[in-house]
Amino acid sequence: MRRMAEAGARPKRVTLVDVAKVAGVSVQTASHVMAGNMTVRLPESTRSRVVAAAQQVGYRPNRYAQAIRSGKTNVVSVWMPLDRPNTSYLRMLHLISEHAKTTPYQLMIVGLDRESALGATAKAPQTWPVDGVISIDAGKAIEAFRKDSYNDTTPVCVLGYEEVANGDTVAWDVLGAERRAIQELIAKGCRKIVHVTLDWILQDFPRERRRTGYTEAMTEAGLEPVFFGCQSESSGAIANEFSQFLDVHGVPDAITGMTDTLAIGAARALLTRGVRIPEDCRVFGFGDYPESEDFMIPISTISPPLPRIMETAWSWLTERMQDPNLEHRFVEIPMQIVERLSSQ
Prior knowledge:
Elements: H1 2-8, H2 16-23, H3 27-34, H4 44-57, H5 63-70, E1 75-81, H6 87-100, E2 106-112, H7 114-118, E3 132-136, H8 139-146, E4 156-159, E5 167-172, H9 174-187, E6 193-198, H10 199-204, H11 209-220, E7 226-230, H12 235-249, E8 254-257, H13 260-272, E9 282-284, H14 290-294, E10 301-303, H15 306-322, E11 329-333, E12 336-338
Parallel strand pairs: 1-2, 1-3, 3-4, 4-5, 5-11, 6-7, 6-8, 8-9
Antiparallel strand pairs: 10-12
Helix pairs in contact: 2-3, 2-4, 6-15, 9-11, 12-13
């Protein structure tokens, strides 16, 4: 019975005392080394000996204790909706990760749904304390986060148009770029232009910026805006849905999609019924997804400057984490129209 108890006993937790004993230094010296405290002058040989001892005994720093002592976690949280198959989110995460690799910071990804990130009842997620937050399409959640005074001092960078105290805002000119794309289609003789978007956008977000840019350009030209709301975000399902629209309304002069995926789905519906692109109908997307260029008829698109967006966001957030008293900063970065075969 005693042997069974010993076998099932929890292993002894390795502490700084063990590290110090193996390294032949005081516990305080071991603590300074493992905390990366360079303000205490220690011979490099001593630091190396402590690090080697920690590896030998299998020591793992207590991150909770470190955070309490220093007031820093070396963690940056990224908030974003994860209930949509959005290629741009993955590209943004990759770019943030590349920037984080050059710093001591680690990333914590916090997945939200559409309502908690953007809706009228948005709420802040429950997370481990972090040194800063980057918000991607989660501005309303950040506003809810700030309603708790405990979170007032956490630096944030919002990717969108929301502006909050102790934070910065990096936006890109979605409305202006969509408007220019529609104006170019009108200049080429297109009169009936359909904007393919998502059904929940039509219902809940009347001021969504792509929708607004499209509407403004059509109205200024004396043309009637025509919308089609999709239930799905897969190109195959969109093709089926949009075919029903074509049955009733016929083939328009041009189609503009809220995303490249929606534009590709609409293009698939056109091609299935023998419509020529761009001769009979021009097609424009948004997002510059890799599949838009690889589609059988390369899809024209509006390209977000993601490298510049993420570089600015990361740079501003790290600066604010060093100096929380910085004035609020805002930038709206231009977007590029990429014309391919589908609209030429």
